[in-house]
Amino acid sequence: MKRTLISWGLAMLCGVTAALLTACSEQKTLTEAARSMVPDYDLSKAEKLLINKENDFSLRLFRQLAAGKDGKNQVYSPLGALYLLNMTATGATGETRGEICKALGISEKEIEAFNKFAHRQMLSLAIDSPQVSVGSVFMNRSYLKSANIIATEGSDYFKEDYRAKMEQDYFAGVIEGRFDEEMQKRLDDWCNEQTAGMIPRMPLKVDRDTKLLLVNANNFAGVWPEEFSEARPKPFYEGTSSKVSMMSKIDKEKYSSVCKHANFSLLNTHYTGGFNMQIILPDSLVDLRAFIDRLSMEELRAAQGKLKTYEEVHISIPKFEAATDMSLKEPLRQLGMHKAFGDDAELVNISDKPLKINKIQQQTKIKVDEWGTTAESVTGTEFAELSLVIAKEENIAYFEANRPFVYLIYDPFGAICYIGTYHGE
Q1: pLDDT of 299
Q2: Do the Cβ atoms of 277 and 408 come closer than 8 Å?
Q3: Of 51, 249, 391, 422, which is least packed with CB atoms within 10 Å of its CB?
């Protein structure tokens, strides 16, 4: 039996707030629903376990994506991948469903719990009210808005129960029509709108074989509670010394914490609204590729448990932008997800028609500067000896990210939204 193709596309970035599509006439949009939300980031024991499993998956997928990308700056959004995997697992049965759950590191019984938590997460993170107190002043709240859309050639390509479920749990909008140039334009316009123009075209091209398309777009805007000083050229070490734009600040308000653990240093620094960035800085002479291969969430959590605030934390990190356009198909195969891509895919809860996943593509952009973060995603032996120095007598810490590192952006629940590497300009 011929299988119809179903494609996934993810366009992720942090940027300006975008209006979201209406899921259906009775359904509130995410933006409308978030207006009446009161932030509540307390987690039950079961929800904490779900977050841990999400983060475990995020790091495992990151290791696959980072393979063969030595020396290249990259960024991806595990949150967007998780949403689409959960949406697909909901529509799958049999071995297909089992393999998706195995890749995610969850049991099939946990799919519904993930969907419900995703709904709560999307609502809580979309709150963009400026009423957030930072010390004695009010500042813009950092936020992350996520939009999902189902594009289909006709309503007979997906079941009404599945459509209602996606509208309810993921605020998914629906576009119907032939997959032609006009449909491509409608999807590109939607992607452009959701990412505030930073990703003007959907990372997938539709064709006549495409019958159903699931797309997620993330829009994150992170604001530092204290700005960095204007960036200036400073040495950066990757085999040889080069110059990159480094921005600095002295944190006296305990927005930042640091620690030394095993063969790396860790910086945790906050945005407004409960988001935070962590920079994992391997020791000098430690190869970043090999370091990523060995890094586990258990070790990272152990380091996070050692984070400590100081009277002053002197921070120096690069000002940078990164953009990545990548296929997630092979990395997911490496995590054990096979049947969903084959002619024997079991996606019968999505449609009565035979479907298989053809493409999974993610495009991510990120910009880190003096004011905050938007994420839309030589030879020689000169090294700096230390990147984390603790002056115990003065209770002062110095953190300088002057060589290749891994960075992560967490939401207020503790889930990894973005993860990437920086190798210099």
Answers
A1: 97
A2: yes
A3: 391
Residue 316 forms beta bridges with which residues? 248, 400
**pLDDT category of residue 292 using cuts at 50, 70 and 90:** very high
- The distance in angstroms from the start CA to the end CA of the chain is 50
Cα 24 from Cα 61, distance rounded (Å) = 33
Q: Give SS3 for 150.
A: strand
Neighbour count for residue 155 (Cβ, 10 Å)? 11
**96 touches 347 (CB < 8 A):** yes
Give dist(CA 194, CA 200) in Å, integer.
Answer: 9
Spatial distance between the Cα atoms of 143 and 285, rounded to a whole number of angstroms: 37
Please give the C-alpha separations between residue 32 and each of 16, 23, 61, 219, 306, in angstroms, as whole numbers. 17, 11, 33, 16, 40
Two tokens at 363?
Answer: 């495009």
Distance CA 364, CA 13 (A): 6
Q: Is the model's pLDDT at 375 over the cut of 60?
A: yes
Helices H / strands E in the chain, number of each:
10, 20
8 Å CB contact between 119 and 34: no
Measured distance CA(321)–CA(327) in Å, rounded: 20
Rounded distance between C-alpha atoms, residue 345 and residue 341, angstroms = 7
Give me the domains of the chain, ranges plus CATH numbers.
Answer: 78-222+324-364 (3.30.497.10), 224-320+369-376+386-422 (2.30.39.10)
Please give the C-alpha separations between residue 216 and each of 8, 115, 275, in angstroms, as whole numbers: 8, 15, 21
Q: What is the pLDDT of residues 47-90, one digit of tens each?
A: 999 999 999 999 999 999 998 777 789 999 999 899 989 999 99
Distance, CA of 273 to CA of 416 (rounded, Å): 15
**Cβ(325)–Cβ(37) under 8 Å?**
no
Contact, 267 vs 402, CB < 8 A?
no
pLDDT, one tens digit per residue, over 89-133 is 999 999 999 999 999 999 999 999 999 999 999 888 887 655 555
Say what the pTM is. 0.88
Sheet containing strand 256-261, edge to edge, reads 74-76, 416-422, 405-410, 276-282, 264-270, 256-261
Q: Calculate the CA dihedral of residues 292, 296, 302, 305 and round it to 10 degrees.
A: 70
What is the b/e burial string over 45-84, where b = at least 16 CB atoms within 10 angstroms of the residue's CB?
eebeebbebbbbbbbbbbbebbeeeeeebbbbbbbbbbbb
Per-residue pLDDT tens for 133-186?
Answer: 545 455 677 888 888 888 888 777 788 999 999 999 998 888 888 888 888 898
Residue 211 has phi, psi (to 5 degrees) of -120, -25
